[in-house]
Design goal:
four-stranded antiparallel β-sheet; 4 strands; 308 residues; 69% helix
Length: 308
């Protein structure tokens, strides 16, 4: 008697309208995983470019350079010393580091090679000037004073380079956002087709539910729950694969880029995302799952209204 009560008194298990294990569901998980992987790579690249551009702009804003060219009839060392005095007294300057002849020659080694005598060449001297971020000196007044007292001295505040760098970063971000929009659009279309296919496959079940009084919101909710699970599954696979790629790139660093690896690592930070970047990937997985679920609900709701 106890076994009969336990068997017939047990609450019946609710069977989902859309079977979770099916070929179509597996294909949709694969599509969502691929789309999420591509979107995560794009988002990670955008975050990396934004971080690298911000770091470079910060470095550029902290330093300016003065170039002193040798001129006929003038003592180059005396001009360098006078330039250092003028720059050091300017408000907003925190440090002045002139480069000697050997350091200037070393800068030319990548183009001219080592062991060359540069005595006969008009090699300019560079002076690195550190400025206070946010409170730089009056560059116009400083340029005018240098031009008046040291004719061979020119000041470069790198603002033109900073503008080009900002334009390049903005262009890269715009392209990345466009790619993300295209990936999301492809995901929405894939989910819409999969939802219509699932409704066509389970049409008898939906008709029976309508016959016994089930509302459209209940049926749409069942499909939404099913596709939310598929979106989370595929998104987690794609986002996890992208995170592993960025972890690998961050671990290996510039060695993957051949002989220019050090320069690439300096430019892009070794492709390391950092905690904020990985949070962006997690948020992207959640967005993909939400878009998948809402798309399925919308398609089911519109279809039921047309049928009804």
């Amino acid at each position: 008697w106890g076994d009969l009560v336990a068997r017939f008194g047990r609450r019946p298990r609710e069977t989902p309208i859309v079977p979770r294990a099916s070929i179509a569901a597996g294909a949709l998980v694969a599509v969502v995983a691929i789309m999420t992987f591509l979107a995560a790579l794009t988002a990670g690249a955008v975050v990396t470019v934004i971080g690298a551009a911000a770091e470079w702009q910060s470095d550029v804003a902290r330093e300016v350079t003065v170039q002193v060219r040798p001129m006929a009839g003038r003592d180059l060392d005396a001009d360098v010393a006078r330039t250092v005095e003028i720059v050091r007294t300017a408000p907003g300057v925190t440090a002045v580091q002139p480069q000697d002849k050997a350091e200037s020659a070393k800068l030319l080694e990548p183009w001219l090679g080592s062991g060359l005598s540069l005595d006969s060449l008009p090699v300019p001297r560079l002076i690195v000037v550190a400025v206070t971020p946010g409170r730089p000196p009056d560059y116009a007044a400083l340029k005018a004073r240098l031009a008046a007292e040291v004719p061979g001295a020119t000041l470069d505040d790198h603002r033109a380079f900073a503008r080009r760098l900002r334009a390049m970063a903005d262009t890269a971000v715009g392209i990345g956002l466009a790619v993300l929009a295209l990936v999301m659009a492809a995901t929405v279309l894939s989910v819409a087709f999969a939802t219509r296919g699932a409704m066509a496959t389970n049409r008898p079940t939906v008709e029976v539910l309508h016959f016994i009084g089930a509302k459209d919101a209940y049926v749409a909710g069942q499909f939404m729950r099913h596709f939310l699970f598929l979106g989370l599954h595929g998104g987690a696979i794609g986002g996890g694969a992208a995170a592993l790629v960025f972890l690998l790139l961050g671990f290996v660093g510039g060695r993957l880029f051949g002989l220019g690896g050090a320069d690439v690592a300096a430019l892009f930070g070794g492709a390391a995302l950092g905690p904020g970047g990985y949070l962006v990937l997690v948020g992207l997985v959640a967005v993909v799952a939400l878009v998948t679920a809402l798309t399925a609900r919308r398609v089911v709701t519109v279809t039921l209204r047309q049928v009804g």
